[in-house]
């Protein structure tokens, strides 16, 4: 009778273990459904959600660091046509994106409209000097001579002489960045002038309420569903988000698409590796070298090539001519130090040294929520100048030169307080649920196996006793 009870107990234990294991298995899809539901609810951009609180105003401080290219041989370039030699000078750091979005409007079609105010506050503690430091750089007014038809170059020569302008000028950091009154043009010009008090947008983005896969995706920019800069359907596409967040449940096998008004186009970033950020796993995404490749190597870029002469029949890689969205000014965008660019770019201006770890753009995205928790947007602003038979300061110039003015690193990272909130409010719940699932499954399987083995051991021993009897 005792053996029967023992065997029955072991069978019951095995059955109970199996039921526990089944419960743990059932909880896996159920738990995943709960996790997905929680994330989707908090990822919708509407008042009261985690996404909305982080969307209205950036929690982490966003910095823009600037490095200038200081020309060391301006007279040799003017008098003998020597190649410019530059030395990097910086960083000069500013706090940006400290203003919350304005004119937020919720639309009936599950989109939100808003303006992004622009502002910059100098941060001396993170800078190598003051805003009054001087830099020798390209004269923007003279460099923009390409805007003037060649038949008017004699008149431009008179204007240059009367204003005592030259190919290069010495200005303060503050003047070069935010503007100064040019003696020849009689107006304010600067690398980023005007900036403070201006806006980016209007943006119109999906809030994700009807389809979480569309959350943060841009519907319109400046009232249009496509750009008007490139005169091509492909290049004028508005793709993805503004890169501050993406739809949740990221698939690292697929690229992330985002639009940047700084470069007047949409781009994609690809998965590089998984990293730890304050105890949170994030996917690092980076721009591929093909992003700014020449149309020879990346035919998709054919519509970004605007000038056959200055781009050497569209074989020049690493730069993007954005004059069409800069009122015709000969501005070229690249990665810092012409990273991934054609060797001729670094041969035309000496002193450049691209290093991927310092000069690449990347996004660190939390894959479950789609939130960008750390990023570094690195862009170099360049201006083109070239030879002219009628303009004295350009007579010695031998070829068209894309000259680096400044490069910037706009960066932000998740702070400790927000990281703790993430781990406490979301990831701790997910981990607890996963632990319960795995615990039930593991304990159930273990109990089932132990009871089953014990049952057969008891049964074998009982059979041996019966045989001996």
TrEMBL record:
It is a multi-pass membrane protein. The keyword Transcription does not apply. GO terms for molecular function: low-density lipoprotein particle binding; low-density lipoprotein particle receptor activity; scavenger receptor activity. GO terms for cellular component: apical plasma membrane; caveola; cell surface; Golgi apparatus. One of its GO terms (biological process) is receptor-mediated endocytosis. Keywords: Cell adhesion, Cell membrane, Disulfide bond, Glycoprotein, Golgi apparatus, Isopeptide bond, Lipid transport, Lipoprotein, Membrane, Palmitate, Receptor, Transmembrane, Transmembrane helix, Transport, Ubl conjugation. It is found in: Apical cell membrane; Cell membrane; Golgi apparatus; Membrane raft. It catalyses: tetracosanoate(out) = tetracosanoate(in); tetradecanoate(out) = tetradecanoate(in); butanoate(out) = butanoate(in); (9Z,12Z)-octadecadienoate(out) = (9Z,12Z)-octadecadienoate(in). It holds the Pfam family CD36. The chain crosses the membrane at residues 9-31, 439-458. Disulfide bonds join 235-303, 264-325, 305-314. InterPro entries: CD36/SCARB1/SNMP1, CD36_fam. Belongs to the CD36 family. This is Platelet glycoprotein 4. The gene is cd36.
